[in-house]
C-alpha cells in the first residue's frame, strides 16, 4: 500500500521531529518543566544561525557550531534569571511564564526580522542525494536522522555514564536529598536548559535548511515535539526518537494517500497510540 | 575544655505555623557519639533538618568548629563537612547502589578514609548488589547504602536520623556494628533514635527531647531508666 520510498522518507522526517523533541524531553525529564517556548527557541536559533551567516558569510553548518555555545549561554541565563524563580510545587507558573516567553520571542523576531520567510542556504548539499538499492534519499534528510540518533545517543551517555548525568537523575528523583549531597538543583537545572538549547540550535540548523521559516512557526514545531515526547513516554530519550519517527512516518504516509492529510495523519497517529498505550511506548519505571 | 566540633545553641525552628524547636542546646565533641532520643514529634528530625540547612532556623546558632553556619544553604553545609543519613533513607530510585554511593562524593571530593572500596569493605553485601537499583534492596541494605553515601563525602560530622526505623533487631545490630570503624575514621556522630537501649549502648552522651525541648541530658551511665522514662513521656504518671 505504501512504497518503500514513502516509509524511508517518513523515517528520515522523524529524525527532524526527534531533534525538535530531544531538548523538550531532557528538560521535562529533569525538572518536570514543560517549556512552551521550546518551538520558538528553535526558531530563534534558526535566526541566530541566519544572522551569523549573513554577517560573516559562513556556511550554516559552521554558523550552527558558533550558535551552539551562544544558545547554551542563553539557556543558562533563561533558567537562572527566570525559570528557577517560578519552579515549585505548582506547575502552573512555569507554564504561564514559558507561554509568555513564546509570545515575546515571536514578537521580538517579528520586529527584528519582519514576517518574511527565510531559509538557511547550505549550498549544493541541499540537492544532493544518495541511492541505496531502489530508494533515493536526500543527503540532508539522511544527515538529519543521523544527527538525531547521535544527539539521543550523546544525551543518553551523558545521562547514564557521567557524574553530571548522575546528578541530573538524582535531582530529578529528589531535589531535597540531592542538596544533602552538595548538589545545587538550580545549577543543575541551568545546565539542563543550556544543553536543551544546544540541541535546539542543532534542530534549528536542520529546520532552516530544510524549509522556509518565519517568526510564527514555533508553536507548530512545539506541537510535533510534544507529541513525539508523549508517544515515546515521558522522560525516555530513546522513546522520544521513536516518537519522532512515528510522527514522521504517519505524516509521510498520510501525505502519500492525500497530500492534505499530512499534518492530520500525524495527530491521528498520536491519538491512536495514546488510546492503546496511555503512558507512551517506553514509559520510565518511576515517575 | 576544647571547642566542640558541632554546637547548637538556643535553636528555635518552626514547621509552618507550628513551633517545633524551643531553644535547643546540643554540643558534639570531636570523636564523640551523641544520641538524641525522644518520641515521634519531639522535634528530633526538625533539629537535624535545621542543622543541615533544609529547615529554616528562626533563632539560635549552629556552629561547626566555632564557625557560624546558621542559615547556610544545604549544599554549603555538606561542603563544610556535615553529612546526613536522612530519615527513611531517601535513596535515589533512578540510581544503582554504586551510583547512590558515588553521588555522596559528587560535590565534596576529599581524600580520606572513605571511598567506594572502604565502604564496600564496611558493608560487603553492597558490593554484590552494586548494580541493582538502590530501592530494590532490603530495608537494612538500603540503610547501609544511605550510610555509605553519607560517608563518601568523608564528613567531619555524620548525622544519622532513625537508623533503626522499621528494621529487625538483628539488622539494627549489624548496622550499629559499623560505628566503631566510622568513629575510627575521625567522624563525630549524632544519632537520632527511638530505640532507647540502642542509643544508650552506642552513645557517649544522650539528650532526651520532648515537645521541642531537651528534657534530660547526660552520659548513659548517669541516667536512670526512670529519669529517661519521665523525660521521654513527660513526668505525669
TrEMBL record, chain A:
Question: What InterPro entries does the database record attribute to this sequence?
Answer: ABC_transp_permease, BCAA_transport_permease
UniProt keyword list: Amino-acid transport, Cell membrane, Membrane, Transmembrane, Transmembrane helix, Transport
Q: Spell out the GO cellular component terms annotated for this protein, sorted alphabetically and separated by semicolons.
A: plasma membrane
Lineage here is: Bacteria, Pseudomonadati, Pseudomonadota, Alphaproteobacteria, Rhodobacterales
For whether the record's keyword set contains Membrane, the answer is yes
Organism, as annotated: Paracoccus versutus
An example molecular function term from Gene Ontology annotations: transmembrane transporter activity
Q: What's its membrane topology?
A: Multi-pass membrane protein
Question: Main location per UniProt?
Answer: membrane
Q: What is this protein called?
A: Branched-chain amino acid transport system permease protein
Which Gene Ontology BP terms does the record give?
amino acid transport
Family assignment? Belongs to the binding-protein-dependent transport system permease family. LivHM subfamily.
List membrane-spanning regions. Answer: 6-29, 36-55, 61-79, 91-115, 135-159, 188-208, 228-249, 261-278
Where it sits in the cell: the answer is: Cell membrane
From TrEMBL, chain B:
Transcription regulation: is it a keyword of this entry? no
Domain spans labelled ABC transporter: 6-236
Q: Which GO terms describe its molecular function?
A: ATP binding; ATP hydrolysis activity; branched-chain amino acid transmembrane transporter activity
CDD domains, per database record: ABC_TM1139_LivF_branched
What is the name of the protein in this document? Branched-chain amino acid transport system ATP-binding protein
Entry-linked InterPro entries: AAA+_ATPase, ABC_transporter-like_ATP-bd, ABC_transporter-like_CS, BCAA_Transport_ATP-bd_LivF, P-loop_NTPase
> Which GO annotations describe the biological process of this protein?
L-amino acid transport
Q: Supply the SUPFAM superfamilies for this chain.
A: P-loop containing nucleoside triphosphate hydrolases
Q: Which PANTHER family match?
A: HIGH-AFFINITY BRANCHED-CHAIN AMINO ACID TRANSPORT ATP-BINDING PROTEIN, HIGH-AFFINITY BRANCHED-CHAIN AMINO ACID TRANSPORT ATP-BINDING PROTEIN LIVF
Similarity comment? Belongs to the ABC transporter superfamily.
The record's SMART domains line, in alphabetical order, gives:
AAA
User: May I ask which residue range the UniProt record assigns to the signal sequence?
Assistant: none
Classify the source by domain of life: Bacteria
Give yes or no: UniProt keyword Disulfide bond: no
| Annotated Gene3D superfamilies | P-loop containing nucleotide triphosphate hydrolases
> What Pfam family does this protein match (any one)?
ABC_tran
Going by the UniProt record, its keywords in alphabetical order are: Amino-acid transport, ATP-binding, Nucleotide-binding, Transport
Amino acid at each position: 500500500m505504501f512504497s518503500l520510498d514513502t516509509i524511508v522518507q517518513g523515517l528520515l522526517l522523524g529524525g527532524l521531529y526527534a531533534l525538535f523533541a530531544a531538548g523538550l524531553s531532557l528538560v521535562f525529564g529533569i525538572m518536570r518543566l514543560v517549556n512552551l517556548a521550546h518551538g520558538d527557541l528553535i526558531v530563534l536559533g534558526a535566526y541566530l544561525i541566519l544572522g551569523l551567516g549573513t554577517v560573516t558569510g559562513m556556511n550554516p553548518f559552521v554558523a550552527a557550531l558558533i550558535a551552539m555555545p551562544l544558545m547554551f549561554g542563553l539557556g543558562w541565563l533563561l533558567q537562572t534569571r527566570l525559570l528557577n524563580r517560578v519552579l515549585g510545587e505548582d506547575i502552573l507558573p512555569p507554564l504561564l511564564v514559558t507561554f509568555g516567553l513564546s509570545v515575546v520571542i515571536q514578537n521580538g523576531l517579528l520586529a527584528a526580522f519582519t514576517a518574511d520567510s527565510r531559509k538557511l542556504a547550505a549550498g549544493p548539499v541541499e540537492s544532493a542525494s544518495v541511492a541505496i538499492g531502489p530508494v533515493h534519499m536526500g543527503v540532508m534528510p539522511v544527515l538529519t536522522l543521523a544527527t538525531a540518533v547521535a544527539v539521543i545517543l550523546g544525551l543518553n551517555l551523558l545521562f547514564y555514564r557521567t557524574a553530571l548525568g548522575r546528578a541530573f537523575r538524582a535531582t530529578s528523583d529528589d531535589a531535597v536529598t540531592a542538596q544533602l549531597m552538595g548538589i545545587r538543583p538550580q545549577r543543575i537545572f541551568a545546565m539542563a536548559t543550556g544543553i536543551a538549547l544546544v540541541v535546539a540550535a542543532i534542530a534549528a540548523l536542520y529546520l532552516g535548511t530544510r524549509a522556509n521559516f518565519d517568526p510564527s512557526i514555533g508553536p507548530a514545531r512545539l506541537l510535533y515535539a510534544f507529541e513525539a515526547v508523549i508517544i515515546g513516554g515521558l522522560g525516555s530519550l530513546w522513546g522520544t526518537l521513536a516518537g519522532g519517527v512515528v510522527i514522521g512516518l504517519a505524516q509521510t504516509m498520510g501525505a502519500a494517500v492525500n497530500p492534505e492529510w499530512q499534518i492530520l495523519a500525524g495527530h491521528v497517529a498520536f491519538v491512536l497510540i495514546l488510546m492503546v498505550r496511555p503512558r507512551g511506548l517506553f514509559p520510565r519505571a518511576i515517575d | 575544655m576544647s571547642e566542640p566540633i558541632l554546637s547548637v545553641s538556643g535553636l528555635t525552628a518552626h514547621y509552618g505555623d507550628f513551633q517545633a524547636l524551643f531553644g535547643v542546646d546540643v554540643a558534639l565533641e570531636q570523636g564523640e557519639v551523641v544520641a538524641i532520643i525522644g518520641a515521634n514529634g519531639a522535634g528530633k528530625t526538625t533539629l537535624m533538618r535545621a542543622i543541615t540547612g533544609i529547615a529554616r532556623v528562626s533563632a539560635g546558632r549552629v556552629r561547626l568548629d566555632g564557625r557560624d553556619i546558621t542559615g547556610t544553604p544545604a549544599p554549603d553545609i555538606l561542603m563544610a563537612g556535615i553529612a546526613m543519613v536522612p530519615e527513611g533513607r531517601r535513596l535515589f530510585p533512578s540510581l544503582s547502589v554504586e551510583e547512590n554511593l558515588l553521588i555522596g562524593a559528587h560535590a565534596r571530593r576529599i581524600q580520606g578514609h572513605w571511598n567506594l572500596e572502604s565502604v564496600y569493605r564496611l558493608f560487603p553485601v553492597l558490593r554484590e548488589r552494586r548494580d541493582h537499583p538502590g530501592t530494590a534492596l532490603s530495608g537494612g541494605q538500603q540503610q547501609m547504602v544511605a550510610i555509605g553515601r553519607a560517608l563518601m563525602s568523608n564528613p567531619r560530622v555524620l548525622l544519622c536520623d532513625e537508623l533503626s526505623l522499621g528494621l529487625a533487631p538483628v539488622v539494627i545490630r549489624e548496622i550499629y556494628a559499623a560505628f566503631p570503624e566510622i568513629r575510627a575514621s575521625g567522624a563525630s556522630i549524632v544519632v537520632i533514635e527511638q530505640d532507647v537501649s540502642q542509643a544508650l549502648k552506642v552513645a557517649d552522651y544522650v539528650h532526651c527531647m520532648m515537645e521541642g525541648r531537651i528534657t534530660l541530658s547526660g552520659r548513659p551511665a548517669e541516667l536512670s531508666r526512670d529519669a529517661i522514662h519521665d523525660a521521654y513521656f513527660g513526668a505525669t504518671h
